[in-house]
Design a protein that fits this description.
28% helix, 5 helices, 2 strands, two-stranded antiparallel sheet, mainly alpha, 120 residues, extended
């Protein structure tokens, strides 16, 4: 029998988020019923980390690079190539890839839907 230890890393990316009006001003985590997560937290080991430096907030891209052992200050190339790889687009040397979200604005130019209805 092997002495290999196994671990499960659960990345709850964005779960804390910000309060959302449609959720009664609660964050997704505050609103959710989470018995499985509660059990994992009770029985497992939990922790926090600062992927770049204490107090520096990072996005998904930088956070995941750091979690997988990369130094985002050295190897970060932006979200475009990451998302291109995620949908199977092969990049060649010299390619430039941008990532953007479409948004819906009202007549006054105010953003009313930052994801344009999640168009595809």
């Amino acid at each position: 029998m092997s002495n290999t230890k196994r671990a499960l890393v659960v990345i709850l990316d964005g779960l804390g988020d910000r309060p959302i009006d449609a959720l009664g001003g609660k964050t997704p985590l505050e609103f959710a019923r989470t018995p499985t997560l509660d059990s994992i937290a009770k029985e497992g080991v939990t922790g926090l980390m600062d992927p770049l430096a204490p107090g520096v907030r990072v996005g998904t891209d930088v956070g995941h690079l750091a979690l997988f052992g990369y130094n985002p200050m050295r190897v970060y190339w932006g979200r475009g190539p990451i998302e291109a790889a995620g949908v199977g687009i092969a990049l060649r040397a010299g390619d430039v890839v941008f990532r953007a979200n479409f948004a819906t604005v009202d007549d006054a130019g105010e953003v009313v839907d930052r994801r344009a209805g999640r168009i595809r």
